Amino acid sequence: MSVRHIVFAVAPDLVLLDACGPLEAFWRAELTMAAAEGAGGGGWRAQMPTNPGAHAHSAAHAHPAAHPPTHAPTPMPTDAPTPMPMHTHTHAPTHPHPHPRARPIAYRTTVASIDGGVLQTFPGLPVVTERLDSLDAEPIDTLIVPGVPVDQHCTLQPELVAWIRRNAPRARRVCSVCTGAFYLAAAGLLDGRRATTHWRDAPHLARRFPNVHVDADPIFIRDAGPDEARSDGERVVWTSAGVTAGIDLALALIEEDLGHAVAMQAARRLVVFMKRPGGQSQFSAALAAQASAGGPFEALHSWMVGHLREDLTVERLAEHARMTPRTFARRYVDEVGRTPAKTVSALRLEAASRALAESRRPLKRIALDCGFGSEQNLRRAFVRRFGVLPLEYRERFMSATAPSSAGHSGAAARAGEEAR
């Protein structure tokens, strides 16, 4: 098995955790491979796919190596007199696990920027990077572009865009974490493809790059484009959501490269889910209706929140808005961008999500209070939108300060729910 070279092409305003999450996942995979070889085991190799696409995900929803990464980013104290190098072959990061052998087994990682040297990352920890042009003669298996802070007026580094456009064709696969998708899009790599990014920045990505098919919900997306049938794995582009989704992405890449068993062990070392259920919507408290605050239907939305258990038909909403149903339905879609029924559904799901996370009220009561009518309707809505049952959602997002309910544990409740 040849060692795969993973290159992180980073911008000067790199969001540090967007790079550190995947790097840590690759490091844990290396630890797993080294432990297996140290034990004299060829078991991992027997389970590895024979081609890079054997375990590919067409559009995955996942949760959030062992030579130390060759060029791993090392955060440095801001008062350090001399920057600590982020790449070394002789000094591994302090780690509670045994070090792997000196040579890489599965992955060699390099973090590089246009100018190289020290970058002051967001939120402020500096790292040392290689120069990207120093890699022009080196093979690249996987090119990953981590995220940067973006807003409506953000300017992408043109030199980095040009380097990505020039070098992406020689990489087996190209990936982005969070808003790194803006760089891939600017380089033309997402034209005509499905792609995702952080849910908050997805509308901006779609407006700025209209040729990209932006889907704000998946944790990550693997898009092989028109060459899906090719066996060499080229032209595959992966995009992922924010920060922790970079770990989900890296675990999927590891599974594609080394098989499910190695990826599972890496996930266990990271103490994360190999594949987490649901998409970004389950973690976002923002609704499109709330984004229209200040618009002509702001007062209506506030009223709807207080009357979710009532029958919120178009006729009832139109009456409250003092319009005819036909005029109301047309103007609402024009102003909000979706139908009134979809807003009602989103508001009810939002209220139910909040009730599940902040209380231990019975599902029946939550279903009635939020307008679902029955537990069955509530479960169907959660599975359809989030991919999880309501009590699974509660177990993941329950606030530590939520009042307890005597004799009603989450595990027991979920068992009862699944049995129905």
Could you characterize the architecture of this molecule?
The protein is an alpha/beta fold. The chain folds into two domains: 4-282, Rossmann fold, CATH 3.40.50.880; 289-419, Orthogonal Bundle (Arc Repressor Mutant, subunit A), CATH 1.10.10. It has 16 helices and ten strands. The protein has an eight-stranded mixed beta sheet, sandwiched between helices. The chain has a two-stranded parallel sheet with strand order 7-8. α6 (245-258) packs antiparallel against α7. The longest helix has 23 residues, at 16-38. The N and C termini lie far apart (48 Å).
Q: What does this entry show, briefly?
A:
With 420 residues, the protein is an alpha/beta fold. Helix content is 39%, strand content 11%.
Largest sheet: 8 strands, mixed
Question: Radius of gyration, Cα only, in angstroms?
Answer: 24 Å
Level-2 CATH architecture of the largest domain: 3-Layer(aba) Sandwich
Sheet-strand content, in percent, reads: 5-15%
In N-to-C order, the SSE pattern is EHHEEEEHEHEHEEEHHHHHHHHHHH
Spatial separation of the terminal alpha carbons: 48 Å
Q: Tell me roughly what share of residues is in helical segments.
A: 25-40%
Number of domains: 2
CATH superfamily of the largest domain: Class I glutamine amidotransferase (GATase) domain
**Any idea of the CATH topology of the largest domain?**
Rossmann fold
Mean pLDDT: 79
Query: How large is the count of helical segments?
Result: 16
The strands making up the biggest β-sheet line up spatially as 3-4-2-1-5-6-10-9
Question: What is the name of the CATH class of the largest domain?
Answer: Alpha Beta
Shape: globular
The overall strand count is 10
